[in-house]
Amino acid sequence: MQQPARVNGERSEQTMSSIQNYHPANPRARTVASTQSEMTEIILPNDTNTLGTLLGGRLMHFIDLTGAMAAYRHSRTNVVTAAMDHIDFIRPARLGDLITLKSSVNRAFSTSMEVGVKVWAENTRTGEVAHVASAYLVFVAIDNQGHRQEVPQLVPETPEELRRYEDALRRREHREAESARRKQAKLAAAAQEDAPKTEP
């Protein structure tokens, strides 16, 4: 196994904790490589809009499926999509193109996982390959009764994996802050509606 990457000569405490618990046969921790998944599809007429380009909703469906594969491989239990945190449509994919989607878990928390997905389109006539989309999704592990399940820790092994690992925490903190902001806004709106009306 490669030595875990360092950032500014230091490893994060959370990364060190994962490393200490890592063992190939130990289900408490898994590597990013063990979660990597790939899917290839050909774009058919039913997948496209009137311009002959891949529908955004269809692409999101493919992204969700490929992301779930990585989440399944990490958690080894049922998973459900909790959020599509971010998606960039970089350029269109067209009728007849082959699209290849690759995913891996960026970071595992207690019962949830952030998964990154990248999408490439290949022109079947010219062989040209272009990056067409990237996305981050959050999946939650559940049992057959729908209860949350704890997931193994994730061990980043390369500088790029460690960068994605650290970035995932920042995105999670942003999601939680935004969720709290929306909750406060709803409470304030409800309180205003319930306030007694005064005559002008």
Structure notes:
With 200 residues, this protein is an alpha+beta fold. Strand 4 (98-108) and strand 5 (112-122) form a beta hairpin. The protein has one domain (13-193): Roll (Thiol Ester Dehydrase, Chain A). It has helices at residues 13-21, 56-75, 159-194, and strands spanning 29-31, 37-42, 78-89, 98-108, 112-122, 129-142, 153-155.
Write the layout of secondary structure elements.
Blueprint: H1 13-21, E1 29-31, E2 37-42, H2 56-75, E3 78-89, E4 98-108, E5 112-122, E6 129-142, E7 153-155, H3 159-194
Label this structure with key terms:
200 residues, alpha+beta, Thiol Ester Dehydrase, Chain A, 5-stranded antiparallel sheet, two-stranded parallel ribbon, 32% helix, globular
Question: In summary, what is this structure?
Answer:
This protein is 32% helix and 30% strand. It has helices spanning 13-21, 56-75, 159-194; strands at 29-31, 37-42, 78-89, 98-108, 112-122, 129-142, 153-155. The longest helix is centred in the C-terminal third of the chain and has 36 residues, at 159-194.
